[in-house]
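Colleagues,

For the teaching module next term, I've prepared a clean inverse folding example: a structure given as tokens, and then the sequence designed for it. I'd like students to try predicting residues themselves before seeing the answer, so please don't circulate the second half yet.
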């Protein structure tokens, strides 16, 4: 069975509003094409066939842009959130009845990596979650750090820090996850719940193993006008090669 994927696209685009001009952040263009479409093409090229996209802010604009997914070689379905549910809450709403390993990707970051390598590294019998990470001292980045990750032996995550203390490690959450469906029982139904701020730290505190895989491509966050401009600069300078 082909891997199912969820692409998160429900955010309110608040911090980048001055650049977005009313568009949802996943529809900001990078060299003439929306970030979301670029990420969907990457998933299709990686062998993904079916994708769910969660929606909230400007849902109709994303539906109009992506449609049924045929233009990017995918079957696309949607999950609308009248009240935004957060990253983990949105995934629970979609995947709580699923039975197999699935992929989660943040739709508003420009990302590329070898998903087959990440699948090979994922060990569902040992850990219900594998997090894709990048090293900001080595990988091109836009200085918008998500949660930072501390690793122990065998790429086991020993700490996940979101927010003010997130500068303590060079290893950063790339917003790419492989998940086992039973772990979603830890996410409250119908409530706002976040992977980085809530689920990951709580699982680690409870002794649940989480592993990480260093990506071999790039992950460029575009959360702010400065980060968006830096993304375009990295491409223009040849530091990031679009495919």
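(Answer key — instructors only)
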């Amino acid at each position: 069975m082909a891997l199912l994927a969820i692409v998160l696209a429900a955010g309110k685009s608040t911090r980048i509003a001055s650049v977005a001009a009313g568009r949802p952040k996943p529809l900001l263009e990078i060299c003439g094409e929306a970030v979301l479409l670029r990420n969907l093409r990457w998933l299709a090229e990686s062998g993904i066939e079916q994708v769910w996209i969660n929606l909230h802010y400007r849902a109709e604009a994303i539906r109009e842009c992506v449609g049924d997914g045929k233009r990017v070689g995918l079957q696309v379905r949607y999950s609308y959130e009248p009240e935004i549910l957060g990253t983990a809450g949105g995934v629970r709403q979609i995947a709580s009845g699923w039975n197999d390993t699935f992929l989660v990707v943040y739709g508003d970051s420009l990302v590329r990596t070898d998903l087959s390598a990440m699948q090979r590294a994922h060990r569902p019998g040992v850990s219900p979650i594998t997090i894709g990470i990048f090293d900001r001292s080595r990988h091109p980045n836009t200085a918008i750090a998500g949660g930072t990750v501390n690793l122990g032996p065998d790429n086991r995550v020993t700490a996940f820090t979101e927010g003010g203390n997130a500068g303590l490690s060079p290893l950063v959450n790339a917003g790419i996850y492989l998940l086992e469906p039973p772990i979603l029982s830890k996410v409250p139904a119908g409530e706002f719940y976040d992977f980085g701020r809530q689920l990951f730290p709580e699982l680690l505190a409870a002794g649940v193993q989480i592993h990480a895989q260093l990506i071999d491509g790039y992950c460029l966050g575009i959360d702010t006008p400065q980060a968006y401009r830096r993304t375009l600069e990295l491409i223009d300078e040849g530091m990031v090669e679009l495919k």
